[in-house]
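Z., the sequence and structure:
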Amino acid sequence: MIDGLEAARQAAELMLSTERFKHEIFSDDYGVEFLELIGQRRDLIEADLERRIEEALAEDDRMTGISDFSLAFAGDCVHAGFVLETVFGTIQMERSIMIG
């Protein structure tokens, strides 16, 4: 059993690992929309990825926002790093997304 900051980390990782609208078991509010980014231009991804992550995490009341967002492109992948702010404290998060 976990709680507090570690539970918030686990919840965030699960939300960012679940594609929204793909699984009937989850509500339409759960998950993130990364599949739409495949094949998109780099400038579109740079402009939209932070918003997608922030909106997905905002569905959980324990998450209060993100800061220090950064992106790094490497081939067919983009790596996002950010600080997740929660009611329990902050968590350094990273996520890699296939875009090609």
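The longest strand covers residues 63-74. The helical segments are 4-16, 42-57.

Let me know what you think.
H.
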